[in-house]
Amino acid sequence: xxxxxxxxxxxxxxxxxxxxxxxxxxxxxxxxxxxxxxxxxxxxxxxxxxxxxxxxxxxxxxxxxxxxxxxxxxxxxxxxxxxxxxxxxxxxxxxxxxxxxxxxxxxxxxxxxxxxxxxxxxxxxxxxxxxxxxxxxxxxxxxxxxxxxxxxxxxxxxxxxxxxxxxxxxxxxxxxxxxxxxxxxxxxxxxxxxxxxxxxxxxxxxxxxxxxxxxxxxxxxxxxxxxxxxxxxxxxxxxx
Length: 240
Description:
Largest sheet: 5 strands, antiparallel
Strand content: 25-35%
Shape: globular
Mean pLDDT: 89
Radius of gyration: 19 Å
């Protein structure tokens, strides 16, 4: 399973014109909304906000005393993650990208809510989808300890407020029937279902995502995070 090779990150973008980013040489190209341009994409806040997905079915975090802004994490080959990030006491949540042989990690560089304790904590893992969009999920089941992976399969299970396309590595009906009825289900390995926290898979925008948010509201909006790609015309658009 290849990860983030150039071929996986080539732009396949949606239609719809957006503002072209600043080229860095034109300080006069101020944002009409009064915001500073994002450093990587050059997008103004209003432009970035228009690109970020907003699914009304997905519950967004609630953090008392904080405000929200759009932030970015740059990916290889002219792609970026755009996400709503919390701003608490003057600190803005920032996620960083680190590539690897099989997957890439999206981890905290700075947390507005948790502070230094969150630095380096991985909240999303990105896998390639070529040639099998669910290849990473199948591999995670195959690599899980035998004791926890028996009867595991890829399942779609509704969770109120979670993305409707969320997938889980979870016991099939027969295996689940053998589990204790009075305890949360934790099964299928480290990337399997864990009903004690918010964690799930998604396959979208050219990646298989494993999202692991823990037990409390995060200080970024993981459910609506969006991959954008820069076209040959210099315009940033959501990746399909």
